[in-house]
Amino acid sequence: MRRRGAGIGVALLAAAIASCATPPKKAPAIRINEDPYASTYVRYPGAVTVIRGATVYDGEGGRIDNGTVVLADGVVQAVGDASLASPAGAVELDGRGKWVTPGIIDIHSHLGDYPSPGVASLSDGNEATSPARPEVWAEHSVWPQDPGFSRALANGGITALQILPGSANLFGGRSVVLKNVPARTVQGMKFPGAPYGLKMACGENPKRVYGSKGNMPQTRMGNIAYTRAVWIKAQAYKRKWDKYERDGGEMPERDLAMETLRGVLAGKILVHNHCYRADEMAIMIDMAHEFGYKITAFHHAVESYKIADLLAKEGICSAMWSDWWGFKMESFDGIKENIPYVHHAGACAIVHSDDANGIQRLNQEASKALADGRRVGIQISDAEAWTWLSFNPAKALGIADKTGSLKPGKMADVVLWNGDPFSNYTRPDKVWIDGALLYDAENPRLRPVSDFELGQPGEGDTK
After folding, report:
1. Helices of type H across 77-203
2. How many CB atoms within 10 Å of residue 185?
3. What is the CATH number of the domain that holds 219?
4. Residue 356: which residues within 8 A CB-CB, separation 6 or more?
5. Which of 281, 336, 347, 358 is positioned for an S-S bond with 353, CB 3.0–4.6 A?
6. 37 contacts: CB under 8 Å, gap ≥ 6
7. What is the pLDDT of residue 296?
8. d(CA 225, CA 403)
9. Looking at the domain assignment, is residue 451 inside a domain?
């Protein structure tokens, strides 16, 4: 009996030891809401519309003469020649002598963050308190009543745009993509499903802003050292949070700045890099390789022509002006043929504004670049050049599956121009966003005016 009792005691002891050796279950990971300020955009109502007889640029390099475009249910239903049938009850528009294109997308704008009137109290584009401010979001400064939005729609045919923080900082913060529609809130303008962007900058601006304060960085090598140090922290933060989300346990402390950079390293947030000089763009590409992220586009990029082959190889877009150069040293070596050279090398070329007035004439900016290219023997068709204004910016913003070209099923973001859109004398005749007619040059009631403007007394009004 003693042996049996001893055996039972040993078994109980072994079971107790095994129980103690089993680690307690870790608490499951709590998922962080990555989109706490979600889009509330709802498309405006539109009528079934058929445009006939116009010259059509489809946004991806295609051209149709005497073409037909059908818009219904917020999307492009069909694009073809004159034989294309009209749906029952459609509004028919005579497009003879006119052009139809996808709406223009400005990949680099500060509307709403630097709105009109341009006074200090409305200047909200640069959080110039530290060289690294990835925690700030441009959308939290956007003023939806900025009159610049409606001017961009009516004068420039702008149907979507990316609002970026300024370029004072090495890490300027998150960008936001907007549909160019009137709304009471920025969430009502947010492009549904568009990825966030991260604004980065290199070169003169950060070293000038912080060097003048006696802080680092004061040099270009300081820019790179500071940026690398921030990415090292971001990698460590990502490893910690990846482990937590995989294994559970105690939740690490959140860091809003590192959350943005973790999103970049995970490929969820797109990098838009303010950079002028070719040598600096090459360094930024090397840094992206070092830390495992991808640069979506270089902005301003006046020396892209020097490394167009490298940009093509890396799949990086260049957002450029046609002929804006020489206003500071890093912009001094710009050439008028920059955009066509980049295009000719097989890289992604984009025309952008960075300006509340320039956004109203991006079609003319593209026209100048097209002519400058032809003068040096680079033959690019008008239809191809339209990719600089719609499809390429849509691609760089991660929304080319939704907009940027006149393809069946895509958003009906469309402009009917009253003549050749590469002419200085041409203006939008009508503009649709998601198939809703939001601007009509022949209808004064379809010319959006912001609440801010409506609230101002007119000239001679003494009330």
Report:
1. 147-156
2. 13
3. 3.20.20.140
4. 110, 111, 114, 115, 116, 118, 148, 151
5. 358
6. 137, 139, 140, 187, 190
7. 98
8. 38
9. no
Residue reference for tokens 């818009």: 71
Residue 300: inside a domain: yes
For residue 50, give the 3-state DSSP assignment. Answer: strand
Domain that holds residue 336: 103-401
* Residues contacting 126, CB < 8 A, separation 6+: 165, 166, 167, 168, 169, 172
Contact of 323 with 336, CB cutoff 8 Å: yes
Regarding beta strands 63-72 and 75-80, do their DSSP bridges make them parallel or antiparallel, or are they unpaired? antiparallel
E strand intervals along 144-236: 158-163, 171-179, 197-201
Pairing of strands 295-300, 317-320: parallel
pLDDT score for 453? 85
Q: Which residues of the chain have pLDDT under 50?
A: 1-5, 12-13, 16-17, 459-463
CA distance 83 to 297: 40
Residue 3 counted as domain residue:
no
What pLDDT does 2 receive?
44
Do the Cβ atoms of 80 and 418 come closer than 8 Å? no
Integer Cα distance of 394 and 299 in angstroms: 15
Cβ 370 vs Cβ 422: under 8 Å: yes
CA 101 to CA 311: how far, in whole Å? 27
- Taking residue 42's Cβ as centre, other Cβ atoms within 10 Å add up to 11
Residue 9 lies in a domain: no
pTM above 0.90, yes or no: yes
Tokens of 271: 């990098």
Would you tell me how many other CB atoms lie within 10 Å of the CB of residue 38?
Answer: 11
pLDDT of 25 reads: 74
For residue 454, give both structure tokens. Answer: 């409506």
Judged by DSSP in three states, 18 sits in helix
Closest alpha carbon to 447 in 154, 59, 129: 154
**Which run of H or E residues covers position 80?**
strand 75-80
Q: In the numeric block, which tokens belong to residue 35?
A: 């989109």
Q: What angle do CA 223, 229, 232 make, to 5 degrees?
A: 140
Centre a 10 Å sphere on the Cβ of residue 270 and count the other Cβ atoms it contains.
23
Please tell me the predicted confidence (pLDDT) of residue 26: 80
Q: How far is CA 119 from the centre of its chain?
A: 25
CA nearest 84: which of 47, 50, 46, 49?
50
Tell me how far apart the alpha carbons of residues 146 and 383 are, in angstroms, rounded to a whole number: 32
377: alpha, beta or left? (left if phi > 0; alpha if psi -120 to 50): left
Which residues are within 8 A (CB) of 301 and not within 5 positions of it... i.e. 6 or more apart? 275, 276, 281, 318, 319, 320, 338
Count of domains for the chain? 1
